[in-house]
Design brief:
Elements: H1 6-18, E1 26-31, E2 39-46, E3 55-61, H2 70-90, E4 98-102, E5 107-111, H3 120-125, H4 128-149, H5 153-160
Helix pairs in contact: 2-5
């Protein structure tokens, strides 16, 4: 995040969110990821206008840029293509809706789902029943995602181009 500066990235997210209507004013609500993680996740809030109060999540791949190694570039492009593809084929059924991608700054802007529990907590800290329920929910979602995306390689390839 330091390469471009937090303010610059948030301003770019506001421009992306605004589309052709002009920038949407955003403020940082909270950092969702730990500092040492390889991705920066930020919750941002629209500060004025018709969408005031709406929150979005920005995911930036740390180290992405012109001089990034192939692994870092692959992580960003894989995440971005996956988010765009899932949004195109199923809206927000399987993942947060992708609102846009900024390739120059290496971030994806998504709808904010609000506070959610990860799969880690029930598996490592929960009861056996809670872990089982979490795994079954995960497997059902994965199966539904597969059903919605199977046979749609051409659509994915079109986005990738």
């Amino acid at each position: 995040m330091a390469k471009h500066g937090l303010t610059h990235v948030i301003d770019a997210a506001g421009t992306l969110l605004g589309g052709g209507r002009g920038p949407v004013p955003l403020e940082l609500v909270e950092r969702l990821s730990d500092e040492e993680r390889r991705n920066t996740l930020l919750r941002l809030r629209v500060t004025s206008g018709p969408e005031a109060g709406r929150t979005v999540v920005l995911k930036q791949v740390d180290g992405f840029g012109k001089n990034a190694n192939d692994w870092t570039k692959g992580r960003f492009y894989g995440d971005a293509l996956g988010a765009l593809f899932l949004t195109q084929v199923s809206g927000d059924r399987h993942a947060p809706r992708c609102l846009g991608v900024d390739v120059a700054l290496g971030f994806i802007l998504m709808d904010d789902l609000g506070p959610v529990e990860s799969l880690v907590e029930p598996l490592l800290e929960g009861t056996a029943d809670r872990a089982r329920t979490a795994l079954l929910t995960y497997v059902r979602r994965l199966g539904a995602m597969h059903a919605d995306t199977a046979g749609r390689q051409a659509e994915y390839d079109e986005i990738a181009d």
